[in-house]
Batch of 2 targets.
Target 1
Amino acid sequence: MSRVYKHISQLLTLEGARKKKGRHPLEKDLGIWEDACIVVDKAQKVLWLGATSALPETYHRFPSQSCEGETWFPAPVECHTHLVFAGSREKEYGMRCAGQSYLQIAEKGGGILSTVKATRKALPEDLLRLAVNRIESFASNGVSAVEIKSGYGLTLESEIRMLEVIREAQRRTTVQLVPTFLPAHAVPPEFKGKDDDYVEEICHVWIPEIAERQLATFFDAFVEKGYFNIKQTEKMVLAAKDAGLRVKLHVDQFNAFGGAELAVRMEAVSADHLDATSDAAVQALAKSDTVAVLAPAASLFTGTSYPPARKLIDAGARVALTTDFNPGTSPTTNLGLVATIAASQMKMTLPEALVALTYGAAAAVGLEDEFGSITIGKRLRCARIQAPHYEAWAYGFGSVSPEPLGNH
Ligand SMILES: [Zn+2]
């Protein structure tokens, strides 16, 4: 049975933002209808939308509901997470806040390799339970799709186990999951001092195996000093593309040495982090379709510098926002909080933040045809907040949780 939702205080379709592929988003690109109405069929396909006063006669006989005081917008998408892991890192945060360096923390058994150790040891059922809980935490914030990376196994067997956990989690949630293979997250202890050998192993053994098992949509690597260099990453990306995987890259987080430019050259779907990126890289991103994925909550949490959101947007780059949910630098699932931080710390306008968390994030995981806008003829993937204006989400400072609608 079709259903009519009337008198929605604001309905945001993001029609204009979609047409501009998310570049230079202005308030008029949000496609705001006041006192709006939307009609969906029983499969949640949008049949009609517009002003309540203009509802066509033919829909008057359908059951209707008044939604006064509510704002509806495309459901947020979370485009960058590391949510399959065991163990905890809160003690490390205490050490960090007490002034200890990353190296000192790593020497005391903290850091990313401590999560690798705990994740390798964990039972698959425990990893699955933890992952599903975290996905549900995103869902309770209105999120309709979540990208999830491997990268805390770093042996072929444990990376496969992580990706199988994501596949199993997909059977238990209505949230759309996007699996990413991230073997080049760090050099595992087994390959210490032999990083070129590790890269060869990834290219010739791991990537073909993951592609054969159809366990991932994307390939990802951490391009950073002390992790993986441009030459190694290029090799892995070519192998991944050969195997049919799409590409995302962690680039320019601490040092800019051509990571973002490589992402553009390799036609990566997204280039993530960019905290230290150069002006030349900003221009390269702006001329490309590669989405710049920014994680200001991680900067806030660790007290480091913010990515140059203003420069990227003003140059015409496509921008997305993420929590970067992970146990070391950003243990939050709250995208509303990310919107507030993006606005106050990176000087993004609220329309820019909203587009980056919906359409932009959908584009960063290749889902912009189905997610990130509300269009007649397409399935409704939408969230609502109990407030008459969209600004309330970012204004809420993490306290306003969009409620998912039409995802089931
Ligand atoms: Zn990451």
Target 2
Amino acid sequence: MVSLTQFINKIKPRHKHRVITMGYAVAIVFAFVLSLSNNNDVNASVSTTDRTDYLLLENTISEGFDEPETLYPTERILNIKSLFDMVSSYQREKEIEKMLTVEKGDTFISMLTAEGISYEDAHEIYTAFKKIYDPAKIRIGQKFLLRGTYDNKLKKIISIDSIILQANNIERFILEKDENGKYAARGEKEELIAEVNSATGAISGSLSQSMNKQGVPNKIVSEFIKIFSYSVDFRRDVRKGDKFEVIFENNITKEGKIASYGDILYAGLILRNDKVSLYRFKDSKGNVDYYTDKGYAMKKTLHRKPLAFQNARISSPFGKRKHPILKRWIVHWGVDYAAPQGTKIFAGGDGVVQVAKYNGSYGNYVKIRHNSEYSTAYGHMWKIAKGIRPGTRVKQGQVIGYVGSTGRSTGPHLHYEVVQNGKRVNPTKIKASTGNNLAGKELKNFKKMVADIKGSYSKMFAAKSDTKIAKK
Ligand SMILES: [Zn+2]
């Protein structure tokens, strides 16, 4: 298969150099000087008295003027119309190759007609091409190679033998004239190989800088951040010395060139003493999502009812209400779920504990920051769970406390608040999750895949972390 570069190389003028005798050259120069006195069209800058111009002219002639091999005659020669006319009897049509680059405002047909092709021919070519590739889709900067016949007298391409259009890194379309003079188009596609890459490193400065430093391309970096954006707030949670791990695919050509970046198969963040791992998984329905190694979906929204007792009823809704103790209308900034004392309270989502203390009318109170957008708060707890203190990283569903009636409360219940961008919103109106946790056979398949990846990355990252990270 021939690459685009090889095509470009082919265009280099062939050097079938023909030696011109000095006498012939002098004769042409003389003829040219004569023509200047008769023809006002000749570019005025070509002075007959300027010695430099003479030298340039002689050089041009001695480099093969009688049969120019290059498709791009120098500007000077183009300007010397009459001289061309005089020697036109020595020139015929010739086969040429020309690379065209799509510029702003170009259409496939306008590019062909600009080279001298008749509109009818251009249209025929367009129609033949369209059977496999619509030339209306050409983009600025795209290249295609023309092979055809150039008329040196008319100074244009008068017929086309073939066009090779490089559609992208791996695909090109070839249009050729067959024996009957009809155009036929075909496509050639290079098969890509998925290559698995891994990278790991300590984070210092920005995450993207740290990842770039280990050779992770920007497209993979932004994908990595997107994958974690549901559970990690990069600005607050990620600190100097934390580590990243990533396994991703490149789609490479047979020559080993990267044609496109593939998917992230595994993404890991090691935050101080905590590790967040996410794995890409395609379920039997074809849905792709990222999951923790236990099969929890990444794209989970906050729990609407973060309690072990899922039958708990709403004893007081979000919004305006008459306060049971204060006996006046006030806004209730959360939802109250009535539940027996001691019922487990779960973290509504992955995050970091911000507050865990007795907090006035809230009683025993925990506040968790999930990401830059969401926080949740839990009031009237009987007890705060062991280990829950400011800075503790929690997972969705982890027990953070137990239902009680501490603070301003009339009976055991959970007061649950969801804060979105600094404003308290109705927890029951949070949009349903787009991702579902894996279960049953899906979970079994997923766990097998995770085991495979873990098996290979322990090798990949062990070697790398020894040199890159462990030395700190
Ligand atoms: Zn309440």
